[in-house]
Amino acid sequence: MTSTRAVRGPFDYRLPEELRAGVHVGSMLVVPFGRRELLGVVVGLAERSEVAEERLLAPLRAIDEGPPALNAELLALARWIAAEYCSTLARALALVLPPAAARRLSGRKRRAVPPARHVPVGASSAHAATLTAEQQAALAPVTDALRARRAERVLLHGVTGSGKTEVYLQAARAALDQGRGVIVLVPEIALTPQIVARFTRRFGDTVAVLHSRLTPGQRYAEWRRLREGAARVCVGPRSAVFAPIDDLGLIVLDEEHDASYKHEGDPRYDARDVAAERARLGDAVLLAGSATPRPESMQRLPARVLSRRVDGRPLPDVQVLDMRGHAPGLHPHTLHALAEVRAVGRSGAAGKAIVLLNRRGWSNFLSCRDCGHVWSCPDCDVALVLHQAGGYVACHHCGHREPVPARCGDCGSSAVARHGAGTERLQHDLAQVFDDDGSFPVFRLDADVGPSASVLARFEAAKSGALIGTQMVAKGHDFPDVSLAVVLDADATLRFPDFRAEERTFALIAQLAGRAGRGGKGRVLVQTIAPEARAIVHAASHDSHGFLAGELQRRRALRYPPFSHLIRVVCSAESARAAGSAADAVRTQLLECLSLARAAPSRAPAGRDPSSETAVLGPATLFRLRGRERAVVEVKAAERRPAVRATGQVVQRLADARAHAGVSFSVDVDPQ
Ligand code: ADP
Ligand code: ZN
Ligand code: ZN
Predict the structure, then answer these.
(1) Cβ 53 vs Cβ 116: under 8 Å
(2) Which of 139, 309, 310 has most ligand 1 atoms within 8 Å of CB, for mutation?
(3) Contact 477, 511 (CB under 8 A)
């Protein structure tokens, strides 16, 4: 398996007699390719080839005996991904192949590895239970479709604690009872141990769990258990959508709003759309759930609503704290509320708080007080962030690090100013104020601390304390003794120049609010300098229906997804001129290609010409990243297929053109 854009395959090989019996569509073979040996996947078998007989080479050997590595559905899925995301079949196949397939080619012996053991974490029993009327109404379309072996999609829109997971579990039971397999996608295993534990507890050894801390051997062992049918349920992050399960009946998509479902390498697939396609191919059911569904899903999927928490507890009170006119940092109300939580803890009851600040490090940037010099990354046009404990400043885009500067490189001054505060500083400041005697530990969860599972476990085990961190603290955790949740700088995400900024902000606040008061009375404080922003007002009143209605209206007016499809082409090169001229060419050729597509007979409904609504925006300059200058062109298309096809053709042509040697092109369909 090679993954350069240039290898476009498929390629024909002659199948020798001795390999015939064991080779099927989906089998893996080692083949000669030029001077190299590559891993190939059989994507078709034919009686004859258009290549002359004497020029056909034979594969060297088969990789595995027995059933082929890939079933027909996964092969079809790979083809779909290659086309849908303007990638190549080779790269798409790499997604569905057994893990580390390429590594096993290098001739290393495979050792027998015992499957990973699943240790249930956390506790929530309720064996579960007669479903509420709302839960039953949500489960019904799933079981109906399973019974009829019909592809179906359902959106489960339910506040946190409304019993969504219980519906997933019973839907999985129904699929298993019919002999069909199940995939459960979660945003990040380390942050969602509870849902994993509930599946393993309910279904035992038939569950395979894929998570980032498995060794390649363990991962492969889990893959085998699924491929051979020993495991019929796969729980995992986005790549689990490719789990080798025959006769798949159900795909659960938990926290469907989570941005981690989008893959950032080529092919830039979105596991949510891949899941929908896989369900369609296999006549399976897609069950997507969230307390804060995306506007796209709201528009596309029939929704079932779980309107209240199962235990009847009200959602926590949310108070918006206007920070205009206040010094940065914590609002007096926030300090007071944290002191109250600590007092509860000291009285012997459980008192815990979660504080979200979506910014890592100690200070956002450093500047020289004398000449104004700002420390920035040598390879990217961004400021370096101070990490105090580590003693370095770092680029959050490429990872570049330097020791903390003692003086200015430009003027020699030693007066270095630190601006802004991140999670590291917040942890330090809170510990100073509240943990003077060690009874109110302040834990930190962000990408800089060690394994998140251990931070979460220590916070859970503590009698009292605070968990502070980036958006990681707002994921699906279920700590019954958290009574206070605080969002600092809640409008930070609103300031992103992105049409999803409001959706993100709403989801972040609403999700964090869902962490408070799960075992008693809860309270949420939202610090912001934009207290009237729509996302914040709706989040404060737990009004996701109101927010979504307004958001869909806005998207329709501005023709953003789901009312259009976005495709982004980024051209990067060492010089800004090369990147810019490649982007100009992308724009020109796209306009040509798309207007040609318009001239061709269109299947569009009469009286409307949707392709005329397609716009090509840019080129615009992006900030320099990893030493490369970048320019972007964006297509806003009414019709998806022709636009994706045109973009794929244009980019392929330009990538092959000598005039643009040294430019790399990356295509992102449905960019996040
Ligand atoms: P969500 O996934 O929406 O956060 P859960 O499925 O985790 O909600 O449900 C919240 C709690 O209520 C869990 O402890 C769960 O076991 C319990 N629960 C769910 N459904 C029922 C039910 N029908 N009867 C009793 N308890 C239930
Ligand atoms: Zn200076
Ligand atoms: Zn950098």
Answers:
(1) no
(2) 310
(3) no
3-state secondary structure of 324: coil
Whole-number pLDDT of residue 570: 97
What's the mean pLDDT when you consider all of the chain?
89
Query: Is there a cis peptide before residue 267, judged by omega within 30 degrees of 0?
Result: yes
Lowest-pLDDT range of 57-61, 139-143, 457-461: 57-61
Do 277 and 242 form a contact (C-beta atoms < 8 A)? no
- Residue 621, SS3? strand
Q: Which of 281-285, 385-389, 452-456 is the least confident region? A: 452-456
The label of the residue with tokens 């029939």 reads 302
Range 495-517 average pLDDT: 90
- Atom number, ligand 1, closest to the C-alpha of residue 309: 10
Residue 415, CA distances (Å) to 373, 392, 412, 513, 551 in order: 11, 17, 9, 41, 46
Chain segment 256-271, per-residue pLDDT in tens: 999 999 999 889 999 9
Q: Which residues line ligand 1 (CB under 6 A)?
A: 124, 126, 128-132, 135, 158, 160-166, 310
Q: Which atom of ligand 1 is nearest to the CA of 311?
A: 12
Residues whose CB is less than 8 angstroms from the CB of residue 466 and which lie 6 or more positions away in sequence, other chains included: 338, 341, 352, 353, 354, 355, 430, 434, 440, 441, 442, 443
- Protein residue with least CA distance to atom 5, ligand 1: 163
Supply the pTM of this predicted model: 0.90
Residue with tokens 């009285």: 347
The one-letter amino acid at 170: Q
Tally of CB atoms within 10 A around 423: 27
Cα 176 to ligand 1 centroid, rounded to whole Å = 21
